[in-house]
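User: Hi! I'm a student and our assignment asks us to look at how structure tokens line up with a sequence. Could you show me two examples?

Assistant: Happy to help. In each example below, the sequence comes first and the structure tokens follow. Example one:
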Amino acid sequence: MHIVLLARKTLYTQPGGDTVQVEETASALRRCGHEASIVLAGDALPRKANVLHGFNLGRPADLLPYFRSFKGKKILSSIYVDYSLADQQRFPVLYSLVGKHGLEYVKTIARALNGSDRFPGAQYMAVGQKSQVRTLLRLTDLLITSSKSEKERIQDDFGSLSCRVKTVPLGIGESFLEPYEEAKERKGLLLLGRLEWLKNQKTIITWATANNWPLTVVGDANTNQRKYYSDCLAQAGPTVTFLPYTAGDELKQLLRTHHTLLIPSHFETFSLVGWEAAAQGMQVLYNDVADMNETLAPIGTALQLKNQAEAQESIDAALQENVGQKKSHDLLESRSWDTIILALLEAYA
């Protein structure tokens, strides 16, 4: 089989969780003997491909031209992020006027106008975000969600689905499952991810400064949210350290020397970094929001970040606990990419 993995234009210029998902899917497919090509929106598809696997339901303008013309099987990994909690803080007046889907439309046009993303096309301009997502779902043979709650959210937003739906969690990279030497002592909190409203890092930076928690913040600024990054820097006290986007061995070293990974996002469809951190012996705390309350429950502890006093008390307590014992080997092995890819191959067939 020749599978094309179709992703957003900014997959590498603004790397995120979907960057890891696309690359690991391609690598696992190749290990299974299949041909896998990564194509960014706006580029041509290989002629001999027989499966098209698109990513990001929330970016229909990227995917629709391909889904309309491709003759083979069309698979869509939804990665359907709900930005509404972050957008209500970021654009309160505009959100109240145009709502969730209207604001996604406005942001798509704005990214095109400032040159940070491709132009969505005349049809998208004419009919809007919600209509285009519904069209994309109608053209999809199989929708892949990473959790059951993600499927339910899609149905709530766009109505009953005519395509088949399969739930497949994301996998842990093989290098995160390899044995390693445990650090003599783990210290401090770790935040990983692009700095933006959705990820909610500023809340933890503020708390860490007030409580003198040692905190390492790893990630670059969102190209379109540089003020948020500046606000995070301005809020940080002497116990807060900032590092740029990190991957590979450098990332694993951070996971092996820090005590607790904190995921404060207003929303995550599937926080893969939580599973990677657990595989490296870290304690994982996460904001109790959809879909993390389903996908991270096996390896982490939920926090109610909206209750500041209670959340800070829980973080304080967590930093006092001994860590270093990895989660169940069988549990982690069941989430390796080579295991997950078998479910995807079953879907492609």
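Example two works the same way, sequence first and then tokens:
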Amino acid sequence: MTSKTILVVDDEPDIRRVVSDILEDEGFQVETAGDASSARTKFYDIRPDLVLLDIWMPDTDGVSLLTEWADQNGRIPPVVMISGHGTVETAVEAIRLGAYDFLEKPLSTAKLLVTVERALENSQLYTENTRLRNQLEPASELIGHSPAIQEIRGQISRIGSSDSWVLVRGEPGSGKGVVVRALHQVSHHRDQPFVEVNLAAIPAESIAIELFGLENEDGIQAGRFEQANGGTLVLDEVGDLDLTIQGKLLGALEEGRFYRVGGRTLLNFDVRIIATSNQELEAKIRHGSFREDLFYRLSAVPLAVPSLRQHREDIPDLISYYSSRVIEAENLDYRRFSTAAINYLRNRPWPGNVRELRNFVQRVLITTSSEEIDAEETREAMGTTAILAEHDVSPGVKQDFDQPIREAREEFERAYFSYHLLQAGGNMTELAQRCGMERTHLYRKLKGLGIDPKSVKNRP
């Protein structure tokens, strides 16, 4: 027994009754409409899994109605057109506009049921493929229409196809990873390896092995340079490297070759380097903690990603985009944020930037049941994360499983350290004891996560 809902739209009562009886006998839930006006209302109210739509109706023809739905909703449920005056031209036009199939009257029961089953199977397959693609392929598309986002798109288009090395800078959660993947997608290396290494998450003593590999009596362990050969190597949070590793990295980049740790054979490499950082590298250069020559080597082309505060006009687009992804990934009933709720969210500070907004949208959609999420519900949900939001972290109430393990780990660590930092009142000695870490490593970790200990210590 299926629980799929089918909307039957036809101006002939007998057709509606007969088709409804056939479908209900097969276990479908059926709603009917006799004209376009009623069809519009029911389409939005019940969100059917499939629509059987008559072409010729007294007020608005079915093809016009199909076009209207497609224009307003993008991906719509499968629509099967039906008509007693079918022509090849009409069928082709309907399918071109997005209809799944075309049936002629009088309707054959067998053909009707086969078409309905295939249309629903096709829709289910599309939904499942989209969900899996969202899980396996992190976003590489910049969402929004603001001047700031359009400028980044233009920069990506201009520099993406070159082999120039790029330094992508921006606040934590602003979308540096999306920009990096977009650069790779438009490059000549798009079909070659794409390898990322999060330098902030690796202990200093292990970074050389991670980058260059290891060679000893037990065998050979390939590093990220070897894995990325011919493609793109992303050095995430390059500002966290200590000076010793900076020197080794600079030597490899200038020579175009390197030794594995413990190895004696020089290995050549051909990779496009994209580095990212959320730190003020110029300040680190002045303080002597970052090499100026490495900075200029990496930043042949600088690219700055704006904070969400700098393109608030994109928040409605981002909410719509992430709502669709969450609803498909979690197989949720259709729901949306009201205009008032969206306006409220546009005026929030969003210290965690797009990542914080994405996680908030996911949590609200999963924990609410109303079709339209109003401003009051949104304010209440936002209030539960206000303290953490003040300290530039994502709420972390529910982990986002539809993302790469690196990003999921970062979100957990950001919430974990922010919680203990608040409990310790900004005292780094107490925080180190709470977390069981050495202070030196702890400072590196907090910087890599974009957490400023002073924001708690200086709190009034």
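Here is something you could point out in your write-up. The chain has a mean pLDDT of 84.
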